[in-house]
Amino acid sequence: MSDLTRMSAAALAAALRGGDVSSVEVTRAHLDRIQAVDPQVHAFLHVDGDGALEQAAAADERRAGGEDGALLGVPIAVKDILVTRGMPTTCGSKILHGWVPPYDASVVTSLRAAGMPLLGKTNMDEFAMGSSTEHSAYGPTRNPWDLHRIPGGSGGGSSAAVTAFEAPLAIGTDTGGSIRQPGAVTGTVGVKPTYGGVSRYGLVALASSLDQAGPVARTVLDAALLHDVIAGHDLMDSTSIDVQWPSMAAAAQVSDVDGLRVGVVKELGGEGYQRGVRDRFDEAVRLLVGAGADVVEVSCPHFEYALAAYYLILPSEASSNLAKFDAMRYGLRVLPDDVAAPSAEQVMAATREAGLGDEVKRRIILGTFALSSGYYDAYYGQAQKVRTLISQDFAAAFEQVDVLMSPTAPTTAFKIGEKLDDPLAMYLNDIATIPANLAGVPGLSLPSGLADEDGLPTGVQILAPALEDARLYRVAAALEAMLHERWGGPLLDRAPELDAAA
After folding, report:
1. CATH code for the domain in which residue 181 is found
2. Across-strand partners of 262?
3. What is the mean pLDDT of the segment spanning 97-111?
4. Choosing a second label site near 476 at 20 to 30 A (CA), which of 57, 289, 327, 414?
5. Which distant-in-sequence residues (6+ apart) come within 8 Å of 93 by Cβ?
6. pTM higher than the cut 0.85
7. Which residues are catalytic?
């Protein structure tokens, strides 16, 4: 493996700044790595080798001209739910097969402006509906730690690309944990920013009140550097927050946690959580205590209802958002058999039957029912009331503590196919991450070690009040330094090497 693909984004940026290497060399090394190992991992749905090298050459020219952006010339992968001009965007669905958008999402525009070559688009659960990246119409992505296991979802392609050293950074989206849960099971850092802190313009909507794009990285500093690139107010997004954000990279410097008030969420642990996950979480908490943090147990009683509320709100919003895929304007169009002059409704029905997967259909049906006359107040309306109670739980908790902590996911990565026939078991993977999306607060998943029973990665989740994303990075950077000292280096240094010849 090229040493360039093993380097962190921050180290690559420093090497580029010092003239030790060019962006073309860095980008080519990652493209070679993708060619060597992605047939096993299947992290990418589309690789834009020529385009990435052109962008890398342009980045080198910008640097030669005196420009010095923080991540100028560092390549990146993008989840296939963000539209990209001139590059296919499928959302992991057959219904968008072959669609090439005529514009960029605002996040992609920011990446291009920062001079970051786009390596390609990563695999995902269809329309971000899933926790394992097994619901992609183009086949599952595999966890580089164990190719028989899932890389999390819905953004398993982004987490797997970073884990397999195919990309130093990636963009994911988090609707109920789809950045943080993959981070936990692949040993990467995943961040869900404050809702509205990163533009959603050009992010194909699953649930508009929950979706949020964010960084996928191998270190806290790398995530913070990327967060600085993509954050900010966007007039194209009516939910974008018009505030002056502090530098996340500046916050991600190792600092003292003496006196930090940490709340361990009572409802996000215990029964149902794998022993190895609990053990690594407890160790992380003890490290903070040893460094002077004040750790207390905090109760958020309405978190118990978060999963049920989420799986009413999300399908309801999804059934509305996906109505635009009607076979009339773009994407797949299927004509019904044995109908000489089909109506628009018949074409729409045939296209959706052929173009949408079982999980998407399941959630659309559930959401349409929850929004239907006579049931709206009983289901969707009640779920929104629970959402308010969860937000109040967060507000009460943050009056007592600076940050909240929990395991990110209840188990390590399960085997591919193990939970496909049990949707409820699949939904439970997001039990710890969903509350943050319902309340709009920021969350970060940090690798917390390997479970003793299976040797697979676990994650610790850190949550902060809305707009306090920088606080996440300060705490996570301190804890990361303690964990690295304990392990003798980053967790991914202990990952098995993929056989490029396979």
Report:
1. 3.90.1300.10
2. 295, 403
3. 96
4. 414
5. 126, 127, 137, 355, 356, 357, 360
6. yes
7. 79, 154, 178
